[in-house]
Amino acid sequence: MSCIHLHVHSPYSFLDGASTLDRLLEKAQALDMPALALTDHNRLTGAIRFYDKARKLGIKPIIGAEVTLEGGYHLTLLCKDLNGYSNLCRLLTGAHMSNRGGEPQIAGGMLQRYCGGLIALSGCSRGEIPALVRKGDVGPARKAAQFYKEVFGDDFFIELIHYPSRKGIPDTHRLAGFAKEEHLPVVATNNVHYAEMEEYTIKELLNAIDRNISVYRLENYRTVEQYLKSQDEMASLFADCPEAVEMTEEIAARCNLELELGKPRFPRFDIPGGETDYSYLSKIAFAGASDKYGHLTPEITGRLERELDTIRTLGFCSYFLVVWDIVRWARERGIACLARGSAVDSLVVYTLDISNVDPIEYDLLFERFMHPLRYEPPDIDLDIDRRRRDEVRDYIYGKYGTSNVSCVATINTYMARGAIRDVGKALQLPHEIIEEACRGIHYLSASKLLEHADSLPELKQSQIYRQPELAKFFNLCAAIDGFPRHLSVHLGGLLIGDGELSDSVPLEWSSGGDIISQYDKDDIERLGIVKMDLLALPTLTVIEDTLASVKEGWGIDIDLNSIPRDDTKAFAMLREGKSIGTFQLESPAQREMAGRLLPNRFEDIIVSISLVRPGPLKSNMDKVYLPRRHGTEPVTYLHPGLENALSETLGVILYQEQVLKVAHDLAGMSYAEADGFRRAMTHDRTEEEMEKMRDSFISSCARNGVSGEIAEKVFEQLAAFAAYGFCKAHAAAYAILAYQTLWLKCHYPAEFFAALLSNQPMGYYPSRVLVAEAQRAGVKILPLDINRSRDRFTVEGGAIRVSLSQLKGMSGEAVESILSGRKPGEFTSLRDFVLRTGVSQPIVESLVRVGAFDSLGTREGLLRQVPELMTLRHRVLKGISPLFDDVRPDHEPFGQAARIDRKARMSVERELLSLSLSAHPLDFLRLGNEFTRMKDLPSIATGRTVRIIGSVVRYQTPPTRNGNRVVYVIMEDGTGIADVTVFGDVQEKCGQVLFRAGWLVVRGKIQRRGAKGVSIIAEDLSPLSPDNYAVSTSGISPTF
Amino acid sequence: MSKLIGEPIKVHQDRDAMVTAFIWRKRLYRVLEVIDWWREPSEWWEGKAVRLFFRVNARNSSSGIYELYRLGEEWFLSRVLD
Predict the structure, then answer these.
(1) pLDDT (tens digit, 9 = 90+) per residue, A114-133?
(2) Which of A164, A204, A427 has the CB atom closest to B37's CB atom?
(3) ipTM of the complex as predicted
């Protein structure tokens, strides 16, 4: 006889399950359990991965959920088959949809409607029948039992849970007695919440976090018995009721759910009468090809036919039509919308106008995207103008119906910071300890925290991780590492079902009011449901805004598809490293690469985007490619047969598409086989698998007359590359956007920066750095002005006017109120402003303080008037005071009050605008000659030691070739930007400063890589302190 | 009725870890029968282990019902039941 656990919670019960799926399944396997159920609270989030993992271990997975019914009662439901699974999805969806913001609850009527294929167990102590029997309400218990019996028939069981306790198990005995009297079958469960008994502590900790109480207040909920007990333990517990244990086997035998995983399911697309999906798609693709190419060559026609044939064979025609329709709809409304990723490899995608990259011009391979040997749902990701992304989403909801569309969920899991905060709170640790423990932690896993605390310089010097009394605390943090915390909305993912989504995916509300799947994107992919990635790309918004601004200011309609791809001025700017603000080219690594690559053609941008990635840099690809690019080293090929594939990149493998070409040209593989070969090499593989692939590749090459030695070397290069290679199609798509932003920045800097500043946060740098960059490009920045500023940064006579929205605390409603109040004419006084708008007092005061009313009076004088004017507005609104009742002059004549000095202006700008317009903080320090300003760095000789002082823009820790951490610090001092490299020895020495100091003094040596790129190799870092500068000009120590 | 004790005791166990006798206040109590057992959670945040309780019928000069528990390696007499 087997005892099978039919009521099991995992961490996907969200703060109520303490053992991972792996631990639960491993224990079940160790205990020789042939099957195991998963019954998380009101969700199936863990179900798909549980199903897969269990099958791999040879354990029969039983999918279910512990659902909550009306009245808060629990009920355990198990799926017998696919119908049961669908019904459970519908029930869970209904429970969540009808209780937005509250606990999901299933109405009795729904249970009756969607009971097919489900087995019901009466639940834990919070089940309706157990609760009523415990209270002695036999009559209502009998009525409830009758209801469940009517709904589920022979698939309803009384769930008996034996937890030995001081008072014995009277409740269980009473429940067993009730079942006997009512002739209801019984089943034994253990309401499992963890694999091993010791893990009850983790469950209690999670419960405390969930209830937002300290662990010391958990008295009413405590037990240690909810572990995955062995069959012997269960048999012993139920020695007086063996039939309850036997029933677990019987129920498990009834559960035979076979999920259809991995089979793509597409939404239906309405096509005109007389057409098939394929014929309609072909018609549109060929019409698009004629538009784009004019004359269709045999190459174009042949490739289109080949791609369309593959799409038809794989059954993906409707998917392409769905995407085409979305993009067409967006374009018709002027919404920028473009494909990214490997989809750009497809000519069909190009001719459907989903992408603007011509795969023939750029020699892209369709098979990298799709081929008959790769039976997976296609993935066409769309970048959309951020401001208008929701319009596109709404169109999809409208077209396919709200019940067929939902957002995809992301499972937010615990990392070090979150764990420290939540566990610390549950243990009632002092706030200061929690803050100190979090300080300096960036994206670290909680389980590796103590390990990192011994190795990372910024954590090493903190004693908090070594305090013995906190060891238990950090162990608890590690114990919940990776545990799901809550579901949120995936940034771009949208599901479109081939019918009602809730037939196959349980749905719920997100905290923001979107409907989301309970599965994340990986599980959605396993289920085969089409996921559209609609990614909000702010760069597209910036481009649109820049073009609109150019049209408004210059009357010029720019067609970015027609701009020259070899603009000398734009490339010169790129080579000089002046690419801050551009798409993909602005990072320090990209700016440095520009100085080494010295790009002068569009293809260089594709190369640069592909090269500046962890993999290629770790493998020194740049060191091979760049000398060839500059002609200082010859272009060679290991074999002449490689020239066709690699000539575009001078004999170096840079793109994933080239792996396919090499495997095709040298080993004679078809492109589809070659993509399989590429993908196999990118996945984790054993030595044995690798050897097999090597032998196969070498023998295939031999058939083409390639020597074993050469084939071996080529294989090694492909193997090394495959792990990190970049998709050329994606690089090309992004290179187009990158070049467009570079061109706009070069030729219309004011319009470009105004658009960029209006769309923050985005990109790599904060607004203050962008403002400084604009100023260096010769663009003047005009202050906030109550009669000039608009909701966005705008261009006024070649200068940029700061927007109203930039003001700290400014709300959308306040901006709207100011703009509508200004419509009849400019504000003539502060009084006029207050009476014509509904802006709150704090915002009015901030506007005055930052100088928005400088044209109407002095700041001090106006500030004094604000309270009285607010009272006046109140009285006017109440009809108490006539508008012209107060005659007090509301501004002092200019010059009478003290003019605010530059430093005070700067301080208030930094406080309220996060910008430094009037001055930079360093302007007020009398720096000694030993300090170098950042604008002068390019003129200093390589190897010379410099000292710089500036504010930290950003810290970066990219992966390195040897695995040793290198920290890059981007700094600014108002005159320019400096890229500082901090190697391990300096990290050790200056660990206390790293990631903590906002202002740094750096001593280091000038380094040059290539002709232009300048950076500083740090020798010492220290925080800014009075020791670093002589005297402030105002005689006051600066506070930044 | 029961009387709370909470005093340390010495416990003898057989090979199967069953309690056979205990010494309380220097007097030996022979366990005649283990009536029940259960486990209770502890203040784990203070590093305390799960408490394993036994309710036994034990005899000294006369027989009585006693509740013993183990906390880590130590044993305690929790209460005496009338």
Answers:
(1) 999 999 999 999 999 999 99
(2) A164
(3) 0.90
Lowest-pLDDT choice from A610-619, A887-896, A985-994, B39-48: A887-896
**Which runs of consecutive H residues, i.e. helices, occur in A639-748?**
643-646, 656-667, 671-682, 687-703, 708-722, 728-747
Whole-number pLDDT of residue A791: 97
Q: How far is B28 from chain A (nearest CA, A)?
A: 24
Distance CA A529, CA A504 (A): 9
Would the CA dihedral through A137, A193, A161, A248 be positive or negative?
positive
Predicted confidence band of residue A1036 (pLDDT cuts 50, 70, 90): very low
Residues with Cβ within 8 Å of A205's Cβ and at least 6 positions away in sequence, in order, are: A215, A423, A426, A476, A479, A480
Encode pLDDT of A569-593 as tens digits: 999 999 998 999 999 999 988 998 9
| Contact present, A994 and A983 (Cβ < 8 Å) | no
Residues 61-80 of B with CB under 8 A from A: 67
pTM for the model stands at: 0.85
- Cα A408 to Cα A516: distance, rounded to the nearest angstrom: 5
Residue A178 structure tokens: 């009730």
What is the CATH number that goes with domain A11-254? 3.20.20.140
Per domain, the residue ranges of chain B are: 2-81
Contact call for B36 and A215, based on CB within 8 A: no
Indicate which of A162, A163, A166 best probes the interface with B, i.e. most B CBs within 10 Å of its own CB.
Answer: A166
Ramachandran region, residue A585 (left: φ > 0; alpha: ψ -120 to 50; beta: rest): alpha
CA of residue A297 relative to chain centroid, distance: 42
CB contact under 8 A, B39 and A168: no
Name the packing angle between helices A656-667 and A671-682 (round to 10°).
Answer: 120
Residue B12 has pLDDT above 80, yes or no: yes
Which of the four pLDDT bands, split at 50, 70 and 90, describes residue A1037?
Answer: very low
pLDDT at A440: 75
Q: B16 at the A interface (CB within 8 A)?
A: no
Q: Which two tokens stand for residue A225?
A: 């018995």
pLDDT band per the 50, 70, 90 thresholds, residue A1029: low
d(CA A574, CA A551): 25
CATH number of A921-1028: 2.40.50.140
d(CA B60, nearest CA chain A) in Å: 24
Q: CA triplet A668, A674, A678: central angle to 5 degrees?
A: 140
Query: Which position has the token pair 């798909």?
Result: A48
B41, A215: Cβ pair inside 8 Å? no
Nearest chain A alpha carbon to B68? A166
Name the nearest CA neighbour of A406 among A527, A519, A327, A484: A519
Mean per-residue pLDDT for A915-923?
Answer: 90
**CA A92 to chain centroid:** 26
In this predicted model, what pLDDT tens digit does every residue of A1012-1026 receive, in sequence order? 678 999 999 998 875
Q: Where are the beta strands (DSSP E) in A248-328?
A: none
DSSP B2-69: EEEEEEEEEEEE-TT--EEEEEETTEEEEEEEEEEEEEE---GGGTPPPEEEEEEEEESSSEEEEEEE
Question: Would you state the CATH architecture of domain A756-912?
Answer: Orthogonal Bundle (1.10)
Tokens 């100091």: give the residue. Answer: A997
Contacts of residue B47, Cβ cutoff 8 Å, sequence gap at least 6: A472
Alpha carbon of residue A900 to chain centroid: 44
Burial A736-748 (b: 16+ CB within 10 A, else e): bbbbbbbbbbbbb
Sign of the four-CA dihedral A113, A119, A125, A128: positive
Chain A CB contacts of B37 below 8 Å = 164
Using DSSP's 3-state secondary structure scheme, residue A15 falls into: coil
**Domain extent listing, chain A:** 11-254, 277-410+489-538, 415-482, 539-735, 756-912, 921-1028
